Amino acid sequence: MKATEAVAALAALAHENRLAVYRMLVEAGPGGLNAGTIATRLKVPPSSLTFHLQQLHRAGLVTQQRNSRQLIYAADYGSMNGLVGYLTENCCGVGQAQACAIACVPVAEIKKSGRKSSKAA
Amino acid sequence: MKATEAVAALAALAHENRLAVYRMLVEAGPGGLNAGTIATRLKVPPSSLTFHLQQLHRAGLVTQQRNSRQLIYAADYGSMNGLVGYLTENCCGVGQAQACAIACVPVAEIKKSGRKSSKAA
DNA sequence: ATATTATTTCGAGAATACTCGAAACGTCGG
DNA sequence: CCGACGTTTCGAGTATTCTCGAAATAATAT
Fold this sequence. Notes:
Two copies of one chain form a homodimer.
Chain A: H1 3-13, H2 16-28, E1 33-34, H3 35-42, H4 46-58, E2 62-67, E3 70-75, H5 77-88, H6 107-112
Antiparallel strand pairs in A: 1-3, 2-3
Helix pairs in contact in A: 1-4, 2-4, 3-4
Chain A binds a DNA duplex through residues 11, 15, 34-36, 39, 44-52, 54-55, 66, 68-71.
């Protein structure tokens, strides 16, 4: 992932409504949701929602697919993982990742062993 | 982590220079770097860099500490992990995370088993 | 005290992003 | 074909962010 792409993805997520949309889609799973459903749930005017969905789509974070009259949006998990990987790349230096392995994305660890018991931030 | 905090963190990272600063600090490790070093490496005017460092600091992504004349900035790994966790929360629904576990943040998996062989995004 | 270094604050112009109503566009049912 | 539905495009006003030189602040050395 290039820096430009990462910036685009982060900018796309850096807005209250868009972040809410994205998380809604992440939770919704591969089936996604249609635009109207999202607009209703978030109480955002259709034209505003389109604006935000386009930002997410252009950034590659969500996919768009037509189902007859409806447009289905779904989270693109690959790009999400790419972004997370980009942020944590070379954490604590290239050869010494072990030095602070606990600090560098222990999310998966937490998810595997226990529940969400340690809210880091 | 609240939505407002996440938006602030994402907005802080959603800029070419700031993302470069942040990744530089993530790679630098807990020791951090002083402002001047960052400004020199990125070829950004001091006043501009301060503006960006403040954004990162206010968002809680980096810590600030004075060392005599120099100000040392370091990545706050806890907040980074919190942000990543927030993005991937409830992936594919609360009770059915297993359904698409591979899609939901396999970053740690990749880091553990092999090298960076599969560039997701 | 004075100079030197490291960094921040101030300020104002330039650029970019956000909101949302009205109108247009694709799709389906009758 | 025509109406209804779901969604997007257009446009203009409003708000926010970015940039960076000049001046101010903090810390140290002579």
